[in-house]
Specification:
Layout (H helix, E strand, L loop, with lengths): L8 H9 L6 E5 L2 H10 L7 E5 L5 H8 L4 E7 L4 H5 L25 H7 L2 H12 L4 H11 L5 H11 L11 H11 L2 H14 L1 E11 L2 H14 L20 E3 L9 H6 L7 E7 L1
Helix pairs in contact: 6-7, 6-9, 7-8, 10-11
The chain binds S-adenosylmethionine (SAM).
Length: 281
């Protein structure tokens, strides 16, 4: 199962490796991604089931297919290059576009809805928490002063005015854009909800592979894998509600797998990727 189909690169690899009989369920919330993946995967048409749905529904999706367990699940989190590069979707601060940032139509709010309706303190908290942005308070105040904001360029101008470029290489709007994208798509809560479902849906010996692109996501994956790979013999005080249980998974790699220098050279967006793999016990 590929919970984040995108353009279908991973799915194609899985289908090639599992030929001639392996079947794949692929999910994505983005109808454009699904259309492209359908083309990419056309040679394997009879072995694929593609559904426009969030990976937070992964247990239900498997149930609907009548699959009780699967051999592998991959989640490649965040936005795709295709989404970043489609100007009108508003993910990139380098192009002027409406402030949208939704991965798919199921998202209830756009980035414009958030910047124009949240209170100053809600915006500051969001930008601090999801963007790890030091200037969150200044930026939130400036947004509230200048709103309504409708386009990425308007938002970038507001941020640049109060948070000038420092010595570091990242553009001052990077962290605020990341924060808005995470909030619009409810990304962290989605990962938290998907991981236990994924582990429950694996065969014994089946593997869950998760690629994350920023520390907030990676921490959720890392903590979940650590927790579920421990035997809980005498539950610590804060987990007294847990009954004793054996570890449910084992971590295949203790440290995350990172791209090689060569891969980063060919694909600079891979530079912050971290792959963690767990195996069902
Ligand atoms: C990094 S890309 C995946 C690229 C893919 N592995 C490939 O080989 O082309 C992430 C994809 O996950 C999708 N996505 C994000 N959140 C999702 C969710 N909650 N459920 C399903 N898909 C989601 C995005 O729309 C995007 O297409």
């Amino acid at each position: 199962m590929d919970g984040t189909l995108g353009a279908g690169g991973h799915a194609r690899g899985i289908l090639e490796a599992s030929a001639p009989d392996g079947q794949l369920l692929g999910l994505d919330v983005d109808p454009q991604a699904l259309a492209i993946a359908r083309e990419t995967l056309a040679p394997h048409e009879h072995r694929i089931h593609l559904v426009q749905a969030s990976y937070i529904t992964l247990s239900d999706q498997l149930k609907q297919l009548g699959w009780s367990e699967v051999d592998g699940i991959v989640l490649d989190l965040g936005a795709s290059s295709m989404q970043f590069d489609t100007r009108e979707r508003g993910f990139s601060f380098q192009h002027d576009a409406p402030l949208d940032m939704r991965f798919g139509p199921q998202a209830l709010q756009t980035a414009a809805d958030l910047v124009n309706t949240y209170s100053e303190s809600e915006l500051a908290d969001l930008i601090y928490e999801y963007g790890e942005e030091r200037d969150s308070r200044k930026i939130a105040r400036a947004i509230v002063d200048k709103r309504p904001l409708h386009t990425t360029r308007e938002l970038v101008a507001v941020i640049e005015a109060v948070s000038p470029r420092r010595g570091d290489r990242v553009h001052p709007a990077t962290r605020t854009f990341q924060a808005l994208r995470i909030a619009v798509n409810d990304e962290l809560a989605s990962v938290e909800s998907a991981l236990p479902q994924a582990v429950t849906s694996l065969n014994v010996g089946g593997r869950l592979a998760v690629i994350s692109f920023h520390s907030l996501e990676d921490r959720i994956v890392k903590d979940f894998f650590r927790e579920q790979s421990k035997d809980l013999v005498n539950p610590p005080y804060e987990q007294l509600y847990e009954t004793e249980r054996k570890a449910i998974i084992k971590e295949v790699n203790r440290k995350p797998i990172m791209p090689s220098e060569e891969e980063t050279k060919n694909n600079p967006r891979a530079r912050s990727a971290k792959l963690r793999i767990a195996e069902k016990m």
